[in-house]
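Minutes, project check-in
Item: structure for the 212-residue chain
Input as provided by the requester:
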Amino acid sequence: MTLSARTSDGKSVSNDIKSRREEEILAAATTLFAEQGYANADTQALADRLGVGKGTLYRYFASKRELFLAAVDRQVEQFHEAMQAAIAGVKDPLQRFARAVEMYLKLFADHPEFVELSVQERAYYKDVALERREKYLQPWKELFRDLIAAGRVRDVPVERITDVLCDLLHGTMFSNYLDERQHRPEDQARDILDITFHGILSDAERKRRGSS
């Protein structure tokens, strides 16, 4: 029996090489899909960029669909890890949410290629996009349920809160990209949070509307 060599962390060398090759393919695929769009992107062009045969790509990813969704998964996981690192140690839940809003806007501003992939995923694989969205929303829904129970947030359906916030953040992200706006993420986050947390009505107007 032949034993494969192992790295210092116990992984086989062959597995380590495979992981690096997959990362190279997915990084190049992300750029290609962002530049040319899902429909126009050609796996032969990707193979040419990587300097490999087309058959090599299909040993890692059996189809263009699988390759595209893997590229999106890779980007989402990177974003998720960055988000978790940004909010780690932030104990107050509202402050944690505020930090997440700023990081969300910053990540998309720093990686415009993923805006393109997000649009394409919604267009071609909407069911996958919605399933992923729900997965990553669950912790935030729990956060708002806890805030409602603590009396810090109005007692309204959590789905109503997350739907409105997602629409607001997605709209801001897409507008930034499409209009090539150069706003600082921290400034936009501050404005979004100010209006979200405090609304636009004065205390006097809220009282007037409440009494009527």
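Outcome recorded: The domain at 13-202 is CATH 1.10.357.10 (Tetracycline Repressor; domain 2).
No further action items on this chain.
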